[in-house]
Design brief:
single chain; alpha/beta; Hypothetical Protein Mth938, Chain: A; 3-stranded antiparallel β-sheet; 3 helices
Amino acid sequence: MHIDNFFFGNITIDGKKYVTDVYVFWDGEILERKKSHDFTENEFLDMLMKDPEIVIIGTGTGGCVIVDKKVEMHASLKGVKLIILKTPDAIQEFNKLIKMKEKVAAMFHLTC
């Protein structure tokens, strides 16, 4: 799995273009996400169902997504490394960790 390109409003993963926010998992699963400027506790708990070691949250090009404070608490309790970055930086981190065969899951907000 590799994120090929990212431009404001779209992302290309393994040659396929997406125009909505996405959840991406190390095993190749990609799920579309309803656009929102909030990343909720429930979203995070849903991502944990796949038992990732690392979760990356891409907060948009300007970092506008607000991450619920409870997300950090759940990550700590579950022993999951949590990385929160603006989407371009989050994508670079995701690609790096995937190459290292890490069990990484990510949510990428594609706009602001």
